[in-house]
Write a structure and sequence with these properties.
- The protein is mostly helical.
- The protein has one domain.
- It has helices spanning 7-61, 63-75.
- The longest helix is centred in the middle third of the chain and has 55 residues, at 7-61.
């Protein structure tokens, strides 16, 4: 309990405690948002990996066709090159 002579100290303490509490809540909210963002990026990266693995398997199963497709794409003029 605060005494009259310690009132400025008590008010300062409670103000700082309240401020720390607000800052802690904001920090927690920021960290939760950062975790959500990181999880979204991780999921996007997993999807991209799956796509690349599928493309690699497709290339492995049809090397000659893909090589010919790349050759045709390479020999076209740059403006038409939309492979």
């Amino acid at each position: 309990m605060c005494c009259s002579f310690a009132l400025p100290f008590c008010a300062d303490f409670f103000f700082k405690s309240g401020l720390k509490s607000k800052l802690s809540k904001q920090t927690i909210a920021d960290l939760k948002a950062a975790v959500r963002t990181a999880k979204d990026k991780q999921n996007a990266a997993k999807e991209e990996c799956k796509k690349l693995e599928k493309d690699m398997d497709e290339f492995k199963n049809n090397k000659d066709g893909k090589i010919n497709e790349l050759k045709v794409c390479f020999h076209q003029p740059f403006a038409e090159n939309v492979c």
